[in-house]
Specification:
Helix 1 runs antiparallel to helix 3. The two termini are about 35 Å apart. About 30% of the residues lie in helices and about 30% in strands. By secondary structure, it is an alpha/beta fold. The protein contains six helices and twelve strands. It folds into two domains: about 1-45, no CATH class; about 70-240, L,D-transpeptidase catalytic domain-like, CATH 2.40.440.10. The protein has helices spanning about 5-20, 25-30, 45-65, 70-80, 195-210, 215-225; strands spanning about 20-25, 40-45, 85-90, 95-100, 105-110, 115, 125-130, 165-170, 170-175, 185, 190-195, 230-240. The protein has an eight-stranded mixed beta sheet. The chain has a two-stranded antiparallel ribbon with strand order 1-2. A two-stranded parallel ribbon has the order 6-10. Residues about 1-40 have low confidence and may be disordered.
Length: about 240
């Protein structure tokens, strides 16, 4: 994993990313069209992509507080070995998510799945990122979300809950405090689990995926509810969703 070298570097990156980028036409273009000599093309960074990059940077900055890189690398290796062959299976019919290590079942949890109108897609994918305290950006391409508003990290009405386990956006495994919805077909295609469970699964994925930086690092992120942290997994973890 590559880490930012200090707060000053992070601040510089953040400042530069916020600046407008201008592109000056080359001489041939200017000669061909004199009226456009002083026109500069500008591009604004995508707000969601910029937010995601900042969320990852905040997680990296926290990791710097957890000891030397050698110590952290050793800890990551130990945790990864303890969770070798981790994989997940979701059964839509009985609305369960099952956790396996190889062929050994180690945990089963109730989930909510998509309705008949917005079914949960079936297939095999891999978890590749863990979002703690995720911000919610309604998928405006979906009719049901046209009138929905963005929800900040940690907001009481944020439907993503405490964590979001990303395998196929916008379909993810995410937390919820609506425990009555578990065991039912009540989502817009994503897989919901209890908030307490999704935090446990997030910790498991970070350890198995080689992105774990220690219990204090994890506790800091999970208790700072108003900040989103996005942590890419260095090793992807399989998930299969089936009827």
């Amino acid at each position: 994993m590559t880490y930012a070298k200090g707060f000053a570097a992070a601040l510089l990156v953040s400042t530069l990313s916020a600046c407008e980028v201008t592109v000056k036409p080359d001489d041939a273009s200017a000669g061909a069209n004199q009226s456009n000599q002083n026109v500069q093309a500008s591009t604004q960074p995508d707000p969601i992509e910029q937010y995601n990059a900042q969320a990852q940077e905040r997680a990296r900055q926290l990791a710097l507080l957890g000891g030397s890189e050698q110590q952290r690398a050793q800890a990551r290796q130990q945790e990864r070995q303890q969770l070798q062959d981790l994989r997940f299976e979701v059964d839509i019919s009985d609305r369960k998510i099952r956790v396996f290590r190889g062929n050994q079942l180690t945990g089963t949890h109730d989930v909510a799945v998509g309705t008949s109108e917005w079914p949960t897609p079936t297939g095999s994918w891999e978890f590749h990122r863990v979002d703690l305290n995720p911000e919610w950006n309604p998928p405006k391409s979906e009719k049901w979300a046209e009138d929905e508003e963005q929800k900040a990290p940690g907001a009481a009405d944020n439907p993503m809950g405490r964590a979001r386990l990303v395998y196929r956006m916008p379909n993810t495994v995410h937390g919820t405090d609506d425990l009555n919805s578990l065991g039912k077909a009540s989502s817009h295609g994503s897989i919901r689990v209890a908030n307490e469970v999704v935090v446990q699964l997030a910790e498991m994925l970070l350890k198995a995926g080689g992105s774990w930086e220690g219990p204090q690092w994890f506790q800091k992120m999970t208790t700072t509810r108003g900040e989103e942290y996005q942590i890419p997994l260095e090793q992807r973890i399989p998930i299969k969703v089936q009827e």
